[in-house]
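A protein record in our archive is deliberately plain, so that people and models can read it alike. The tokens are whole numbers drawn from a learned vocabulary of local backbone shapes. For reference, a complete record is included directly beneath this paragraph.
>
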Amino acid sequence: MLLNDKLKPYRLLLASQSPRRRELMTGCGLAYELAPKYDCEETYPEDLPAEQVPLYLSRLKSETYPAPLAPNDILLTADTVVVLDGEVLGKPHGRDDACRMLGRLSGRRHTVVSGVTLRTACRMHSFEVRTGVWFRKLTDEEIAHYVDTFRPFDKAGSYGIQEWIGYAAIERIEGSFYNVMGLPVQKVYTELDKFLNS
């Protein structure tokens, strides 16, 4: 039975304000509802290794969801970070910060890590996906053009792989392309299927 058919008795709630996550969920044909927006202070222990941050935050987002889940609800929460030299590069604080981040990523490999949590009223399952990304060396002019044209201030690491920079500057990736966009949708699909079967 196709996953879409298995999901018919359930209400899949996507707890994310990211337009890219909504686009990816729609693109793979998963019927979902957008969960109401709620506040979650995305803080994590200072000694937590950078690669473990998104899994921790996806669980935190799930656990702080304010409404009780109905018996047929499945809540999906996710978090994606860019990791360079063991440090989380989050969303930039403005133009200068975005340019600085891209300057650090230029000519180097970094890792994009997503954590995803699936939760019902009585079960919770979390998983992570990692993707290696290689940038060619960028000029200051290219960085300024990208930041000023695309204003990537809502994106971890200050870039969107689906935008100009992905076409012009990313030499290769190792792993899921869609993970770099913000949701490892193939893994979500297969893990959701297993979650329903368990």
Summary: The chain has a mean pLDDT of 96. The chain is about 35% helix and 25% strand. The CA atoms of residues 145 and 179 lie 25 Å apart.
